[in-house]
Amino acid sequence: MKQEQPAASPRRVYRKNPARASRRRRRRARRLAGIGAMLAILALLVLAVRWMLAGSELSRPAGAPAPPAAPTATPAPAPTPTPPAQQEGPAADSATPADSATPAPTATPAPEGDTPAQAAARAALDAYLDTLPGSVSVLAVRPSDGLTYARDADRSYYAASLLKAPYALWLYSRAAQGQLDLNETLPGWTRLEEVLLSQEEQAAGLPTPTPQLVTVPDRTAREAVALMVGQSNNSAAEQLYTRWPATAATGFVDFLSSLGLDMTGRVANLSLATGMSGNLSPAEAVRVLTALQTFFDSGTADGEELKQAFLNARSNYLTFDWPMARKYGNWIDALHDIAIVYAPDPYYVAVFTDWGDPAKVDPQCKEYYRQISALLAALLES
Question: pLDDT value at position 26?
Answer without folding.
Answer: 60
